[in-house]
């Protein structure tokens, strides 16, 4: 009713612009996880403020504080870098939560990392059987009877037979007049995907390593959700044995123990065979580990399983190796040596949070 | 946009009853027009500073977003809005209970009386509801010609300087005018001013400015920096008229900043007096007490203007002061200065926690005396609670020379620097500000795209001068 809605829309546009500008910052923090609902994620933005001459403390000496800790709360038109930390503190109690559509967020991610849209797999896999009742047939159950067509047929017939009387326009259909709706099979583009997140939770994976995995999993989910209408996510954690856990556990679990990577791959394969047939699903397994496996023999078994069982069934298998203090990082080397030719396998090493963006891009940049 | 006034019968009746009770009590206002709106629309109007139409700006949208979030989550709620205008518009929220509406109405008559009679409001535009919608359509037509992006960017620059006005200027001018022109506020005078406004002549030439002295670069020093920029900065016509509009609205809102405590105090004093003086049904007394104490409760360490204001007027009445006279001639600072003695200061002004509003410079272990507490509060309220920045002159290369009159509180240099950059962008030459940081002189030199801060010993002398407030 009032024009305020237009001002609000403009404000939101500005905020979205700022989030877009800051997306790399969000890429390397876990800030958004847990703020995420089904459709939207609520992002805290400091109230954008016009700079005004005002009172306030100057904790960081002079005003050249570089990046404010909570972003750039001051200049509305995107003047970067000059925000002072002081302002960030002062306005701390004015933080606004802005809802951003997950679709929008994925789009921002896509633009920032220049991710290609995922290309459909081969035609065989593309077609999924769907049906619509838009055909016509001469027999069928009463519930599918097409009244208008039936009436028209009866009318045409009675006019042609000369039995139709405009003064007593009664039309009685006979058996030949009846028409019924029929189901037509049509091809629907495939739109289901399943994502497996497998995480090594053995003792050598520290808190920071797990955090990195979580952030990465969040962004991958966000992107894939924007590409497929129907997506399921399976969380698998493993040390010496693997088990399926729910999302919350995956993101919060702390475990310790040895590492047997094959246990996770076995479980993943079993899931694919039992629940997610490759004919029906686009399959994306992601595995994160610090690269220490139990034994060379287990690694060999993993390579065999990947080559013979997993890779033929999936769109893309991604292995992300997070550098940890104790990990040798051997597993990635072994995979690259044995399966470097396989285009469905992507491996990526992550040394720290600053690598996240590049690593996400290497996983999603192929458009598979 | 035209508002539809359709009060239900019960509220209409209540408005009549409240008005006559207010008049009997001695309150006098312009005609009060109540509008009943739902909560979202009231928030919209509140975001616009009380007006149904404003020029387009994302800032209002942000305020609206915040108010709406507060309402949706039940964190905050607006009960009423009153505009200083003739007639005085007041907005009631549909979802309020009848008791709340009664309280609000009585409160509104208090505000309306205050607007009409407090001297600081005397120079304000009493037809602001028209003026401000005129401003809105002028800015919209500028946008049509110049484009939204340029206008928005310039507005952001100008709005960042909106506090750079002299809150004492309108009253001073009004007094001068009253001395020179016996009937300064006559219809012909007003229409002449309106005509000049419409023809778009720059701020300096019309009746809003000192008529005796044409505005030149020479009319320095001044606190009316916004006005100075509007007259002297090398601006395009549309930029000048935006600056002028923002300045004019800033002057309109400025007295509300200076009299917040008195204004709320006066309104609360009267809603309490009128309602308990016969407007309430006995069955409503408890609910009233609940609502009233909610409005006048204060969190430790914060200053609730409703509470402090009502106590000031009650205290004055007990001491036999003429409260009507007080509400006419004072602003917050002079009122508290006049009334607060040791007893009052200890009871109402001393912060209840160690980190308080009253003593900005504290942190020492020893407890400040009541005079310090009072002085601290007065300091924080003076100049409308804003830093006092004076434009003292123009340097050899055309740079603006500003001085911050330091009152014990440092400037936030980051935000200040950004704001000065905006000022330099408008002035199209550097801007220099002298201030103190922890007692040491600082000079901020701003150009359009950079700011430097250097030590400046001479600042220590010029900034610590006694402020004009």
Query: Total number of helical segments of chain A?
Result: 12
How would a textbook summarize the main sheet of chain A?
6 strands, mixed
What is the CATH homology-level superfamily of the largest domain in chain A? Answer: von Willebrand factor, type A domain
Helix/strand class of chain A: alpha/beta
Overall tally of structural domains of chain B = 4
Structural Rg of chain A: 29 Å
Task: Say what oligomer this is.
Answer: heterodimer
Low-pLDDT runs of chain B: 201-218, 354-364
Biggest interface between chains: A-B, 45 and 49 residues
Give the DSSP E fraction of chain A (strand runs of 2 or more residues): 15-25%
**Shape, principal axes of CA atoms of chain B:** globular
Please write the CATH class name of the largest domain in chain A: Alpha Beta
Percentage of residues in helical conformation of chain A: 25-40%
Low-pLDDT regions of chain A: 60-93, 122-126
N-to-C CA distance of chain A? 47 Å
**Order of the strands making up the biggest sheet of chain A:** 7-6-5-8-9-10
Number of H- or I-type helical stretches of chain B:
19
What does this structure look like?
The complex is a heterodimer of chains A (368) and B (469). Chain A has a six-stranded mixed β-sheet, sandwiched between helices. Chain A is of the alpha/beta class and 368 residues long. Chain A has helices at 4-21, 23-27, 85-90, 102-113, 123-126, 147-161, 207-227, 247-252, 261-274, 296-310, 330-339, 356-364, and strands at 40-45, 96-101, 127-137, 180-189, 192-200, 230-238, 242-245, 282-289, 317-322, 345-350. The radius of gyration of chain A is 29 Å and the shape is flat. Chain A has three domains: 4-113, no CATH class; 126-187, no CATH class; 193-364, von Willebrand factor, type A domain (Rossmann fold, 3-Layer(aba) Sandwich), CATH 3.40.50. Chain B has four domains: 9-118 and 259-295, no CATH class; 128-196 and 216-258, no CATH class; 305-383, no CATH class; 387-463, no CATH class. Chain B has 19 helices and eight strands. Chain B has a five-stranded mixed β-sheet. A three-stranded mixed β-sheet of chain B has the order 1-3-2. Chain B is globular. Classes of the chains: A alpha/beta (368), B alpha/beta (469).
């Amino acid at each position: 009713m009032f024009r305020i809605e237009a001002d609000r829309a403009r404000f939101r546009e500005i905020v979205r612009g700022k989030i877009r500008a800051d997306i790399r910052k969000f890429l390397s923090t876990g800030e958004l996880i847990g703020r995420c609902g089904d459709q939207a994620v609520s992002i805290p933005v400091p109230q954008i403020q016009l700079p005004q001459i005002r009172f306030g403390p100057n904790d960081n000496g002079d005003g050249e504080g570089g990046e404010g800790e909570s972003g750039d709360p001051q200049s509305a038109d995107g003047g970067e870098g000059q925000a002072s930390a002081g302002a960030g503190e002062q306005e701390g109690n004015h933080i606004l939560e802005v809802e951003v559509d997950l679709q929008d967020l994925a789009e921002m991610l896509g633009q920032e990392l220049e991710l290609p849209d995922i290309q459909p797999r081969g035609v065989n896999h593309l077609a999924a059987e769907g049906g619509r009742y838009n055909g016509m047939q001469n027999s069928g159950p009463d519930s599918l009877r097409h009244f208008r067509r039936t009436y028209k047929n009866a009318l045409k017939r009675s006019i042609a037979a000369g039995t139709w009387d405009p003064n007593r326009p009664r039309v009685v259909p006979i058996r030949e007049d009846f028409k019924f709706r029929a189901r037509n099979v049509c091809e629907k583009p495939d739109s289901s995907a399943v994502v497996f997140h497998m995480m090594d939770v053995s003792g050598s994976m520290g808190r920071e390593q797990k955090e990195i995995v979580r952030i990465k999993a969040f962004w991958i989910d966000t992107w894939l959700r924007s590409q497929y209408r129907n997506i399921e996510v399976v969380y698998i954690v493993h040390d010496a044995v693997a088990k399926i856990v729910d999302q919350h556990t995956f993101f919060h679990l702390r475990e310790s123990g040895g590492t047997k990577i094959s246990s996770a791959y076995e479980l993943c394969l079993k899931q694919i065979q039992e629940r997610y047939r490759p004919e029906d699903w686009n399959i994306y397994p992601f595995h994160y580990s610090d690269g220490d496996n139990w034994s060379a023999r287990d690694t060999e078994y993993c390579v065999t399983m990947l080559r013979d069982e997993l890779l033929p069934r999936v769109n893309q298998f991604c292995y992300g190796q997070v550098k940890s203090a104790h990990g040798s990082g051997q597993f990635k080397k072994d995979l690259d040596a044995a399966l470097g030719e396989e285009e469905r396998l992507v491996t990526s090493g992550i040394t720290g949070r600053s690598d996240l963006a590049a690593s996400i891009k290497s996983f999603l940049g192929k458009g598979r | 946009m035209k508002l539809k006034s359709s009060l239900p019968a019960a509220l209409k009746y209540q408005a009549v009853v409240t008005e006559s009770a207010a008049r009997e009590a001695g309150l006098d206002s312009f005609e009060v027009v109540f509008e009943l709106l739902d909560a979202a629309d009231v928030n919209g109007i509140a975001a616009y500073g009380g007006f149904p139409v404003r020029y387009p700006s994302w800032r209002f949208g942000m305020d609206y977003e915040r108010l709406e979030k507060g309402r949706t989550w039940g964190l905050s709620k607006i009960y009423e809005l009153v505009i200083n205008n003739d007639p005085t518009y007041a907005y009631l929220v549909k979802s309020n209970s009848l008791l709340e509406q009664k309280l609000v109405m009585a409160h509104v008559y208090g505000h309306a009386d205050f607007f009409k009679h407090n001297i600081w409001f005397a120079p304000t535009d009493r037809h602001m509801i028209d003026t401000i919608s005129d401003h809105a359509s002028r800015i919209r037509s500028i946008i049509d010609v110049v484009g939204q992006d340029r206008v928005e960017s310039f507005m952001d620059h100008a709005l960042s300087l909106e506090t750079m006005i002299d809150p004492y200027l309108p009253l001073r001018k009004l007094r001068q005018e009253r001395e020179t022109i016996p009937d300064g506020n006559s219809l012909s005078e007003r229409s002449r001013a309106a005509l000049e406004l419409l023809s778009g002549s720059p701020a300096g030439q019309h009746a809003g400015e000192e008529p005796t002295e044409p505005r030149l670069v020479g009319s320095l020093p001044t606190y009316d920096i916004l006005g100075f920029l509007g007259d002297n900065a090398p601006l395009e016509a549309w930029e000048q008229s935006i600056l002028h509009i923002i300045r004019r609205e800033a002057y309109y809102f400025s007295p509300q900043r200076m009299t917040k405590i008195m204004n709320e105090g006066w309104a609360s004093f009267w809603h309490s007096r009128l309602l308990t003086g016969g407007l309430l049904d006995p069955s409503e007394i408890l609910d009233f007490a609940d609502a009233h104490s909610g409005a006048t409760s204060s969190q430790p360490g914060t200053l609730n203007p409703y509470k402090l204001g009502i106590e000031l007027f009650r205290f004055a009445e007990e001491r036999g002061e003429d409260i009507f006279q007080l509400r006419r001639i004072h602003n917050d600072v002079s009122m508290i200065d006049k009334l607060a003695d040791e007893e009052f200061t200890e009871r109402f002004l001393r912060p209840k926690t160690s980190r308080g509003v009253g003593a900005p410079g504290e942190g020492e272990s020893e407890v400040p005396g009541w005079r310090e507490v009072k002085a601290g509060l007065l300091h924080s309220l003076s100049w409308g609670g804003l830093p006092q920045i004076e434009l003292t002159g123009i340097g050899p290369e055309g740079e603006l020379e500003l001085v911050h009159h330091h009152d014990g509180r440092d400037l936030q240099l980051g935000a200040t620097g950004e704001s000065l950059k905006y000022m330099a962008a408008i002035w199209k030459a550097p801007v220099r500000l002298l201030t103190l940081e922890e007692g040491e002189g600082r000079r901020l030199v701003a150009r359009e795209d950079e700011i430097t801060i250097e030590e400046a010993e001479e600042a220590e002398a010029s900034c610590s001068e006694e402020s004009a407030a």
